[in-house]
Design brief:
By secondary structure, the protein is mostly beta strands. The protein is 11% helix and 48% strand.
Length: 161
């Protein structure tokens, strides 16, 4: 085993992996699994090629959120089946920092998994308290969607002070 893997095993064996993403110097009081979900079951307007929908999630004020994986799906207009359709393009923006998570909108299955399997982030993303995540969905084809579901999975870090 090389030095990197030995150190990683030592660190994760004695500390919660998520604690590595906490603010340096701040003692952690609790780490709790958590999810932020968009349930766009009754959209005011369908997601089409000309009409994007934007969904906003406001982070809680008492903790950092460490996002470790994403999942999502859509429902075609007039249908009842949940799809992992590449026709839905998604862009995520952290409005507090102004940073987008992708260089351009990406097909839903490429960033949100498919068939019940989530998309694992290569490195967890830390979202600060009171930040707003904006998720924009648009159709890349003539097909329209009347339902959109998206979940940010991860953990919340509560600090002692």
């Amino acid at each position: 085993m090389n030095e990197f893997w030995r150190k990683l095993c030592d660190t994760t064996g004695t500390d919660n992996y998520i604690s590595l993403f906490g603010e340096p110097g701040r003692p952690i009081a609790l780490i709790d699994n958590y999810s932020y979900t968009i349930d766009g079951n009754s959209l005011s307007a369908d997601i089409t090629q000309t009409a994007a929908q934007t969904f906003k999630i406001v982070m809680d004020t008492d903790s950092d959120f460490v996002c470790t994986f994403l999942s999502g799906s859509a429902r075609a207009t007039g249908g009842s089946v949940i799809l992992f359709s590449p026709a839905v393009l998604v862009q995520i923006t952290d409005e507090a920092s102004g940073r987008t998570w992708l260089n351009q909108p990406a097909p839903l299955p490429m960033i949100a998994g498919q068939g019940g399997f989530p998309f694992l982030l290569t490195s967890p993303r830390v979202v600060k308290p009171r930040s707003t995540l904006s998720v924009r969905a648009i159709s890349a084809q003539a097909q329209s969607f009347s339902g959109f579901y998206f979940t940010f999975h991860g953990s919340r870090i509560y600090y002692a002070n």
